[in-house]
Amino acid sequence: MRFYSTRNKNEFVNYTMAALSGLAPDGGLFVPQEIPLYPAQVRSSLGSMDFIDIAFETVKPYVQDTIPNNVLSDIVQSAFTFNAPLVPVADRYSLELFHGPTAAFKDFGARFMARSFSYLRRNEDHPLRILVATSGDTGGAVADGFFDVPGIYVTVLYPKGRVTPLQERQIAGLGKNITALAVEGSFDDCQRLVKAALANESVDTEKNSKKQPALSSANSINISRLIPQAVYYSAAAGRAFAGNIDYDEEATPRIKGSPRPLEIKKGLITFCVPSGNFGNLTAGLYAMKMGAPIKQFIAATNINKTFPDYLNSGEYLTRVSQVTISNAMDVGAPSNFERMAAHFTLEEMREIILGVSVNDEETKETILRIHKEAGYFLDPHSAVGWKGVEKLITDNKINGTDIFGILSTAHPAKFSEVVEPLVGLPPIPTSLTNAMERTVNAKTIPADVSALMESLKE
Ligand SMILES: *Cc1c(COP(=O)(O)O)cnc(C)c1O
Question: For 371, phi and psi rounded to 5 degrees?
Answer without folding.
Answer: -65, -40
